[in-house]
Amino acid sequence: MKILTRIFKNKYLITGSVFLVWMLFFDRNDLASQLDYRDDVNKLKAEKEFYIKEIAQVEKDLTELTTDQQKLEKFAREKYLMKKDNEDVFVVVEEGE
């Protein structure tokens, strides 16, 4: 009992405890907020990796389209339904269930 009274009379321990509780639960940058920020950072890193891969793929496609005439023609036909003057284009749409 004597030890407990000495501990509770120690103003540095009380101040430190109050500060610790304040920083963990009540501060603007509390523990829960820090965990949320960490999750947000991880999501943003995953998005960054995805977009880096997409940019690499688009750059690869761009170099292929600018260097190969046949791939450029195939791309124009498939994506933009372009055709030559003496051709007819038929678009086949499959009905979903």
Q: How would you describe what is shown here?
A:
α3 (31-67) crosses α4 (69-80). The protein is rod-shaped. The model has no long low-confidence stretch (mean pLDDT 88). It has 4 helices and no strands. The protein has one domain. Helices cover 75% and strands 0% of the residues. The chain is an all-alpha fold.
Low-pLDDT parts are none
Mean pLDDT: 88
Strand content: under 5%
Q: How would you name the oligomeric state of the polypeptide chains in this document?
A: single chain
Radius of gyration: 32 Å
Count of individual helical segments = 4
Termini separation comes to 77 Å
Shape descriptor: rod-shaped
Keywords:
single chain, about 75% helix, about 100 residues, mainly alpha
Write the layout of secondary structure elements.
Elements: H1 2-9, H2 11-26, H3 31-67, H4 69-80
Short summary:
The chain is an all-alpha fold and 97 residues long. It has 4 helices and no strands.
